[in-house]
Structures are given as structure tokens and as C-alpha cells.
Design brief:
By secondary structure, the protein is an alpha/beta fold. The chain has helices at residues 123-140, 155-163, 174-186, 201-211, 236-248, 269-284; strands spanning 2-3, 10-16, 19-24, 27-32, 52-56, 62-66, 73-77, 104-108, 144-149, 165-171, 194-198, 217-220, 225-227, 233-235, 257-262, 287-296, 303-313. Helix 1 packs parallel to helix 2 and helix 5 packs parallel to helix 6 (269-284).
Length: 318
């Protein structure tokens, strides 16, 4: 498992009874988590001193209950690049004890279906591809072109830009793209070479293929289910393989990495590994690895599973 354990301003304090107790900077939240099927004693007093609590209802939705939580606040994260030699290698550049750049800052706010605008477990992937980008930029003497699809509020976009990439950020939601731009400003990356695009990811990739566009790195964080602008249905289990084959056509001859994230229950890391080997490694070589990603739990030292990631990286940076 790849563990996002470099956070200073985020922490999973405890887990029990279908919920997790989290510290987001100065604020304590309780949110549901389907992985937490155990009932353990809630000894941490912050279970009862929370600032916000998302209650799930029997119909699958839910609502927030607030106890002094502001409408908006921020937390920061310092990238510690890894990825050179293997996806579990030590940090590149500044080393495991030091960050590569100024901290990234993320605006947070409670919104529909329990979310805050950030998935902290993805920090372990930011560290991984940041190291690859920095090493490739140094060896090639030019910025890397990186495509971030289903890019949400821009955590991966900012990590790639801070490492020296020119990023194309694509998401179908105008609100999410605007949120990502605000995160860039807060992180001192307002003038970074990022193209901010509100677009359907499948349609965008199809147009890029026709244009002959190429990218050195691709990040893909597709939803489990969604609808396109014309009512097209996206179901991950049915849509991912054809879309992956399509998107792989955008990789340059000097491509460095490809990352797929999945939060779909039942889509195991081995499936992501098979997909990447079949669509990319069989033709470009390199190395494919896949695994669960997770967050450490302070109360007991265990790790909370938070999805899966599949990673391909080029052979010259192994």
C-alpha cells in the first residue's frame, strides 16, 4: 500500500462505526467512510468536540451539521518528491526530509455528499510524479507537458506545475475549474503555465488526437459514474478500457508517466495493472505498478484504505 503520511495539516485521528474523525488544519470533522465497518471505542474526546459532522441518511444522501465550522478555510501541503528508481523510492531532489518547493495551499469548504474539495490520500501520488517530472525536466532540458483529466480542484495540477510541468487541466465542471484556479493563486502558482479547460474529457481527448497533440505525462482520475454534456453515460467498468486506449495515443515518444486513480469498489489494483500493461507497457516498455492508497490513523497506527492507483513510468527513469 502507498501511504500518504507526509501531511502536517491533515490527519485521520480515529475511525469507528462507519465514520472517520479528521483534523483539517484547525478544524475537526466527522464524515462517513464505507471502509470503516468496525465498531471500536471512541476514546478521542474530539468525537464530541467536532466542528462539522456529515450525517448520511437512509436514502443514500445526507446533510452537514455545523458547530462553528467556517464557510471556507485552507490547509497546505509540502511536496516531497519520490518516484526515481521505483514508485517506492526515496525522495528526489530535496530528500525525504525536505520539500521541493513552496507549500501548496488548498481552499476547503463543506459541500454536497460529504466532500471538502480535497482528497488527502492523493498526496502520495503527487510525491511520486513530482519526482519523475523534476528528474525528466533536468535530463531533457525542457518543461514536461502533462495532461490532467477529470482534474477536480487541481491538487495534481498544482503538484505537477510546481515540479516544472506545463499542465493542461480538464474538468467538465466550471465550478471545479474555478476552484482549482483559486487554489493555484493561493499556492503562488497563479502565473504557472496551466491551461484551464472546462470540457468533456472524452471529447477533449478525441480532439487532441485529431490535432496530433502529445503529452509526456497523463493523470486520470475518472468518476465511477457520470453523464456527458449530451447525456452520454460514463460507467467506469465499461468506459475505462476504451478511454484508456484512446488516451494512451496522446503519449509522446519521450513519455515519462501515466497515473490512473480509482475509487470504485471492486476495481482491484491488479485490474489497473493489467490495463496499463496492455494499453501502454506492451508497446512503450517501462514499469507498471498498482496498489491501494491509504492514510495513517493516529489512534492505532493502522492505515485506512482510500482507493487504488495504477502507475506506469518510463524505463529510463527506473
Amino acid at each position: 500500500m502507498w501511504i500518504a503520511d507526509d501531511w502536517k495539516e491533515y490527519e485521520v485521528l480515529d475511525t469507528s462505526g462507519g465514520e472517520k474523525l479528521e483534523r483539517w488544519g484547525d478544524y475537526i470533522l466527522v464524515r462517513p467512510d464505507p471502509q470503516v465497518i468496525w465498531e471500536t471505542p471512541r476514546r478521542d474526546p474530539r468525537w464530541k468536540k467536532r466542528d462539522g459532522h456529515y450525517h448520511r441518511n437512509s436514502k443514500g444522501g445526507g446533510e452537514w451539521e455545523f458547530f462553528g465550522l467556517p464557510d471556507e478555510w485552507s490547509i497546505s501541503y509540502e511536496i516531497r518528491p519520490s518516484g526515481i528508481g521505483s514508485s517506492n523510492a526515496g525522495a528526489f531532489g530535496a530528500g525525504a526530509s525536505g520539500a521541493c518547493c513552496s507549500p501548496l495551499t488548498f481552499r476547503l469548504k463543506p459541500f454536497h455528499f460529504k466532500h471538502t474539495g480535497l482528497f488527502p490520500e492523493q498526496a502520495v501520488n503527487w510525491n511520486w510524479f513530482s519526482g519523475l517530472i523534476r528528474e525528466a525536466v533536468k535530463s531533457q532540458g525542457r518543461p514536461l507537458k502533462v495532461l490532467n483529466l477529470f482534474a477536480y480542484t487541481g491538487g495534481a495540477t498544482l503538484a505537477a506545475a510546481a515540479a516544472g510541468a506545463q499542465v493542461t487541466h480538464v474538468d467538465a465542471s466550471k465550478g471545479m475549474v474555478n476552484w482549482a484556479k483559486e487554489n493555484a493563486q493561493a499556492s503562488g502558482l497563479g502565473n504557472a503555465p496551466v491551461r484551464w479547460l472546462v470540457d468533456d474529457c472524452v471529447k477533449f481527448v478525441e480532439r487532441e488526437i485529431r490535432r496530433g497533440s502529445k503529452y509526456d505525462g497523463i493523470i486520470m482520475d475518472p468518476p465511477s459514474y457520470g453523464r456527458g454534456p449530451k447525456g452520454e453515460i460514463w460507467k467506469l467498468e465499461e468506459s475505462l478500457w476504451p478511454f484508456l486506449k484512446l488516451t494512451a495515443q496522446l503519449l509522446s515518444k519521450d513519455a515519462v508517466f501515466f497515473l490512473i486513480n480509482s475509487y470504485t469498489t471492486g476495481l482491484q489494483p491488479a485490474v489497473l495493472s493489467y490495463l496499463l500493461n496492455s494499453a501502454i507497457a506492451n508497446s512503450l516498455g517501462g514499469q507498471v505498478e498498482a496498489g491501494e492508497i491509504g492514510l495513517p490513523v493516529t489512534a492505532n497506527g493502522l492505515v485506512l484504505p482510500c482507493g487504488a492507483s495504477g502507475r506506469w513510468q518510463c524505463s529510463r527513469l527506473l
